[in-house]
Amino acid sequence: MDFLILVFAHLLADYPLQGEFLAKMKGKNFIALCSHAGIWTGTVLIAAHLIGYSVDLLDVLILFTVHALADYLKAKPIGFYKKLDPLGMGLFIDQSIHILQIIIFMLFMSEKIS
């Protein structure tokens, strides 16, 4: 259930809370990218808090940085993303990175608890 809550928070922040402006600008403007990554990180951290996870500053920085980097690579596009359809395989890889990030975050949180 925790996984579904965090995925819901991710989807909420990555789509409706992002908005069209940030979606278009995050590959062109550092402030837009950081704004989106901050909204995403904050939304996921609120969900994590409601689940009962205790996060520290390092957790926040890692979540923010990984999300911002993944989104920047897709939005710019940089590297192998240049060859991918942004709404096809590009989106699939981007979302896979974010889901993997949530899974790794949950594993680290379970290590902190035990």
Description:
The two termini are 19 Å apart. This protein has helices at residues 2-14, 19-25, 30-51, 57-75, 89-113. By secondary structure, it is mainly alpha-helical. The radius of gyration is 14 Å and the shape is globular. Helix 4 (57-75) packs antiparallel against helix 5. It is built from five helices and no strands. The chain crosses the membrane at residues 29-50, 87-108.
Spell out the blueprint of helices and strands.
Blueprint: H1 2-14, H2 19-25, H3 30-51, H4 57-75, H5 89-113
Organism: Metasolibacillus meyeri
Keywords: Membrane, Transmembrane, Transmembrane helix
Protein name: DUF3307 domain-containing protein
Total DSSP E strands: 0
Instruction: Describe the main β-sheet briefly.
Output: none
Unreliable spans: none
Number of alpha- plus pi-helical segments: 5
The secondary-structure element order is: HHHHH
Looking at the structure, what is the overall shape?
A: globular
Strand content: under 5%
N-to-C span: 19 Å
Q: Provide the gyration radius in Å.
A: 14 Å
The chain-level mean pLDDT equals: 92
What is the helix content?
over 70%
Counting helices, strands and paired strands, the structural category is: mainly alpha
In brief, what are we looking at here?
The protein has 114 residues and is mainly alpha-helical. 75% of the residues lie in helices and 0% in strands. It starts with a helix and ends with a helix.
Tags for this entry?
single chain, 114 residues, mainly alpha, Phage_phiKZ_Orf197, transmembrane, membrane, transmembrane helix, DUF3307 domain-containing protein
